[in-house]
Amino acid sequence: PYIILKYAKSKDGFFAKENEQIWITNSMSGCLVHKWRSESDAILVGTKTALTDNPSLTTRSYFGKTPLRIVLDKDLKLPQNLNVFDEKSETWIINEKIVTEDSEARNKFLKINFDEELLNQILTQLFESKKSTLIVEGGAFTLQQFIDQNFWDEARIFTGNKYLGNGIEAPKLTGTLSEKHQIGDDTLTIIENSFAGC
Questions:
Q1: Which residue from 19, 69, 152, 197 has the fewest beta carbons nearer than 10 Å?
Q2: CA 16 to CA 39: how far, in whole Å?
Q3: Which residues in the chain come in under a pLDDT of 50?
Q4: How many Å separate Cα 133 from the centre of its chain?
C-alpha cells in the first residue's frame, strides 16, 4: 500500500507528553485529518496511542467513509471499551495470541508474530485485502518503526503553535520537501520519501 505517516509536533519538537493526552494542533487541522481518513483504505495506531488517546479513528468531522482501523495489541491488554473497538467500522486487532474464526465479525483478531517481519506481514495482509492506502497515526515508536524500515511514501507533519518543554520526541525522518501550508496557527509540512521502494 501507499503509506502516509501523519503526526503533530510542538514548536520545540515534542510529539506528546508521557502517558498524557495533549492536543497540539487546532480544529482546522483536525478536520483536514478526517478528510484524509475518508480518502484512505486503512489507518493504524500502536498500543500506547490507543490506550492514552482513546481515538475513534473515524471521519466524524468530515463526510465520507471511515477506513479500516488497525490496532497493534501484542498481548491483548487493551480494554475492550476503547473507542476503536466500538464495531462502528471494521477493525483489525494485530496480536500474538488469537485469530478470529467468524468471517462476519467487525472486530477481527489477526495473529502475527511481533518480530522484525511484523510490519511487512501487516502490509502483505493489506495488499491481499486490496487496501491500497494506509495512514499511520502513531504513536512515536510505531511511526519510527515504519521510518527505520523505510516503509513510507510520504509524511504529513503538523507543527502546532505550542511549546511542551519536555515529553516524547517527535519521530526523525529525512526526505524531500513537497509542500508547506499554513493552517491557522499550525504549519503543515509534507515530506516525500526519496528512497521509497529501495
A1: 197
A2: 26
A3: none
A4: 12
137 near 57, Cβ under 8 Å? Answer: yes
Contact in structure between 179 and 192 (CB atoms under 8 Å): no
**Sequence-ordered alpha helix ranges (H) in the chain:** 27-38, 47-53, 118-128, 140-148
Q: Which residues of 95-132 are buried (b: 16+ CB within 10 A; e: fewer)?
A: beeeeeeeeeeebbbeebeeeeebbeebbebbeeeebe
How many other C-beta atoms can be found within 10 angstroms of the C-beta atom of residue 82? 16
Q: 67, 45 in Cβ contact below 8 A? A: no
Kindly report the pTM of this predicted structure. 0.94
Whole-number pLDDT of residue 195: 79
Rounded to whole angstroms, how far apart are CA atoms 51 and 19? 9
